[in-house]
Amino acid sequence: MSIIIFLLVLSFLVFFHELGHFLAAKACGIYVDRFSIGMPPRVVGFKWGETDYCLGALPIGGFVKMAGQEDAPLSEEEREKEYGGIPPERWFNNKPVWQRIIVILAGPVANLILAVLLYGLLAGMGKEVAESEITARIGFVEENTPAASAPLFAIDASGDTVDFEQSPDAVGFKPGDLLLTLNGQRVQDIQTFSTSVLLKGEETAHEIEIERPGETDDAPPQLFVCKLKPVTMEGEEFPRFGVHPFASVRVANVLEDTPAKAAGLQEGDIVRRANGDVVSIESFGTLVQDMPEGESVDLTIKRDGSLIPLTITPHTTGRFRKFVLGAQGKGEDAENGPAVVLRVDPEFREETGLQRKDVITAINGEPVTYREAADRVLASPGETFAVTVERPQLLFGLGQKASTENLELTVDPVRTIGIEMREEYILHRVPASQIVPEAFRQSWYAFTTTVETLQALVMQNVSPKNLGGPVMIYQMTSHFAQRGFGWLVGITALISVNLAVFNLLPLPVLDGGLLVINSIEGIRRKPLNPAFLEKFQMVGLALIIGLMFFVTFNDVGRLLGNFIP
To answer: Residue 36's beta-bridge partner residues?
Structure first.
């Protein structure tokens, strides 16, 4: 099903692209011999008028075959054989340059129009999204990052210019801060904020305005501004500030015989503040588990529209903080199956030898399932386990041979209150009056981000190894299709914009290369030398083939990265 969805999306995008060329060619009176979705050989089709409408066997593209459009120059004999029965005035290369340019541009423009239509459809029907994906509020600030030490200057109602040379009024972003603007542009969400930052590289200082909640829910918010440069953390590829998105602390379950149960916390409660500070799921979890033993936390709970104060003293339980343990497989029986290591901190891996994809089969010599292992860890804070690990074979033994390892792992003592938290999902939909503006806004953002990504590649702010090809597109469409129809519509719109921009690159074979050739011809008022055109097209073809090999190599490397620890 994932493959079918990928091929349908690809064919849908190619159809609109080629439809743009086709309609423009027909409007300009150009003879169109074939309109094909998919590459030859021809599988099925029908002829209507002068044009053969067909499907090709290879679902990796499409084309509009016009009389007189030559990817490589033809001899007079070849041209006569190919187009001899067609009036010369209907040949593409005999049309005025301005008409040829319209036909060339029509394909990318059609993809941009499609993106606007898809984003409009998405804005109108809405989609279920997590709160963290549509808010510009900060949920967590990492230690030792630019965000943690950002000098903040208060903005007062007078509108006076801020003097960034004076002593700051506050230091560091906090959970609950709302990002208002980045370099004068309104911030939509944390994702777009982070993307804009990384594309500019480490040397760019960004001016950021934030709104900080008051000390109580009734107090007015404070406005701050700062100038900040991102930093590329050790072991990472992209510069960033160190902020994570916000997710409200919604109580999904209160465990029996826990401090939360004793204090009266209930399912559906929302923890608004802890010790007076606004908290998200991430910041609240970190705050509680790092508390000194025996210390209490004062909470402000929102329940049925009312704010309720509660004081809870966390108890101590066990947890592995340096790696993530999960059930192998899905479904109700997964917890009774093996316990697999999903993620390991690099330093912990070096220290203990534990690797991603290791399967824990026994603790202190006793066989365990995932559920049994999780319960043992929870009940054993500070205890050191003798763990038996089955290391699977990877890449048929080429990447890693199967083995059995005996390791010692110490359970970290952490504080908990005994609740399970969940992120809130909401239907995000704009009002009817905002559907068209939102469609254009989303399309413009996708277009400018794509262009800025290309600029970042040229400026080396983004590594070329992050480029992806067909495999990445397949993975993206599969992932978003699983999340729902709305997500699939959104990623299809984004890919359509990428296709438009990519085709406008001034490379031979692409629409952008043809645009350059015809523009030069219009300036010179005579065609370019056929021998030069042939070499130009051959160089372009070689570049495109090389690019395809490169992005496919990147795709394969990412796939192997999922198998290798």
So the answer is: 54, 63
